[in-house]
C-alpha cells in the first residue's frame, strides 16, 4: 500500500501520541452510568491559569525545522500580512493555515484557523478551528502550551455550538477536550457516551472513549471500542491501540495478531521495527 508523506508522518507518530495520551493528567477518570444526564457545556469549568501564546513566537519556533524554501515561502506570506487589507488578510490566513497543514505542524495551523473563524464567523469555520486545536493539543509536547490549546479548542467549539446547537461534531470535540484538560473529565465522558448513543458508529467518539478507557485501566472496554473503530475504518493507529490493550490484559496471542495488523497496514520501517520487538517480547 503506497502512503503519502502526511500519512507516513501520522503513522510514525502513533507510538509517541499513545504515550502522550496515557501521560495526560486526567483525574477521576471512570466511566459514568449510561443513564447519566449530559450537562451543559457552558457550565463546565475550564483552565483559567494557562499562559497565552504568541502566533509570532509559535511560527518562529515551528519554522526552525523547515527547509529554506518553505521558510522563505511562509516568511513572505507572513510579511504580507503587515500591510494587507482586511480582505487580503483573510486570504493570507487561509494560505498560511494550509501551508502549516501541509507540513503537519498543527499549532501554528490551528492559530490561523482561529483567525479565519474570527473573520468568517460561521459554524463550519469554528468547528474546523476547534478540530485543529484538538489536533494541536494532542500532538504538543509543551505542557505549558497544551492547556492553552485545550482552552482554545473549547472556546471554538462553544462558538460553533451557539451557531448550530447540539451537533454530534461539537459534542465530540468538547467531550475530548473536557476529559483531556479540565477538572471535570466526567462531563466529557458523558458527552461522548451521548454521541455514541445517538451514533453508535461514530469514529472519533469511539476512538477517544477507547483511549480514555485505557487511561483508566478499563482495558476490556477499550478493546470493544477499538474493535468498533476497526469495523468502521481500519487503520494502523486503531490496530496499535487494540494490540496495546490486549497486551495490558496479558492476552499475548491476541496482542501479537493485532500488532501484526498494525505492521501490515502501516508499511513503515519504524513501526515494523517496533512491532518486531513487541512480538519477540510477547512470544518469550
Measured between the Cα atoms of the first and last residue, the distance is: 31 Å
* CATH-defined fold name of the largest domain: Serine Threonine Protein Phosphatase 5, Tetratricopeptide repeat
Structural class: mainly alpha
**CATH-derived architecture of the largest domain:** Alpha Horseshoe
Q: Could you describe the largest sheet, including whether it forms a barrel?
A: none
The residue fraction in helices comes out at over 70%
Radius of gyration: 20 Å
Number of helices: 15
Condensed summary:
The chain has 284 residues and is mostly helical. The chain has helices at 5-12, 14-23, 55-62, 68-81, 86-102, 106-119, 123-139, 146-163, 168-181, 185-198, 203-215, 219-232, 236-248, 252-266, 269-283.
Describe it for me?
The chain has helices at 5-12, 14-23, 55-62, 68-81, 86-102, 106-119, 123-139, 146-163, 168-181, 185-198, 203-215, 219-232, 236-248, 252-266, 269-283. The chain starts with a helix and ends with a helix. The radius of gyration is 20 Å and the shape is globular. The chain has 15 helices and no strands. Helix content is 72%, strand content 0%.
SSE layout:
Blueprint: H1 5-12, H2 14-23, H3 55-62, H4 68-81, H5 86-102, H6 106-119, H7 123-139, H8 146-163, H9 168-181, H10 185-198, H11 203-215, H12 219-232, H13 236-248, H14 252-266, H15 269-283
Helix pairs in contact: 2-11, 3-6, 4-5, 5-6, 6-7, 7-8, 7-9, 8-9, 9-10, 9-11, 10-11, 11-12, 12-13, 13-14, 14-15
Amino acid at each position: 500500500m503506497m502512503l503519502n508523506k502526511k500519512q507516513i508522518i501520522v503513522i510514525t507518530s502513533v507510538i509517541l501520541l499513545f504515550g502522550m495520551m496515557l501521560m495526560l493528567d486526567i483525574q477521576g477518570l471512570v466511566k459514568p452510568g449510561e443513564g447519566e444526564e449530559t450537562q451543559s457545556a457552558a457550565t463546565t469549568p475550564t483552565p483559567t491559569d494557562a499562559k497565552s501564546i504568541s502566533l509570532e513566537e509559535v511560527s518562529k519556533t515551528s519554522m526552525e525545522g523547515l527547509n529554506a524554501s518553505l521558510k522563505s515561502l511562509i516568511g513572505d506570506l507572513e510579511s504580507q500580512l503587515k500591510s494587507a487589507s482586511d480582505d487580503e488578510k483573510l486570504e493570507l490566513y487561509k494560505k498560511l493555515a494550509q501551508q502549516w497543514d501541509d507540513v503537519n505542524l498543527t499549532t501554528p495551523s490551528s492559530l490561523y484557523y482561529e483567525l479565519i473563524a474570527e473573520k468568517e464567523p460561521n459554524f463550519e469555520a469554528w468547528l474546523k478551528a476547534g478540530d485543529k486545536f484538538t489536533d494541536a493539543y494532542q500532538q504538543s509536547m509543551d505542557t505549558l502550551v497544551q492547556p492553552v490549546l485545550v482552552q482554545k479548542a473549547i472556546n471554538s467549539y462553544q462558538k460553533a455550538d451557539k451557531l448550530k446547537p447540539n451537533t454530534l461534531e461539537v459534542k465530540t470535540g468538547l467531550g475530548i477536550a473536557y476529559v483531556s484538560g479540565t477538572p471535570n473529565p466526567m462531563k466529557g465522558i458523558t458527552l461522548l457516551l451521548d454521541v455514541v448513543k445517538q451514533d453508535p458508529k461514530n469514529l472519533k467518539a469511539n476512538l477517544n472513549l477507547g483511549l480514555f478507557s485505557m487511561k483508566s485501566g478499563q482495558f476490556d472496554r477499550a478493546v470493544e471500542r477499538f474493535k468498533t473503530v476497526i469495523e468502521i475504518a481500519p487503520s494502523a493507529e486503531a490496530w496499535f491501540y487494540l494490540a496495546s490493550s490486549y497486551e495490558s490484559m496479558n492476552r499475548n496471542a491476541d496482542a501479537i495478531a493485532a500488532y501484526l495488523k498494525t505492521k501490515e497496514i502501516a508499511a513503515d520501517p519504524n513501526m515494523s521495527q517496533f512491532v518486531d520487538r513487541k512480538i519477540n517480547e510477547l512470544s518469550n
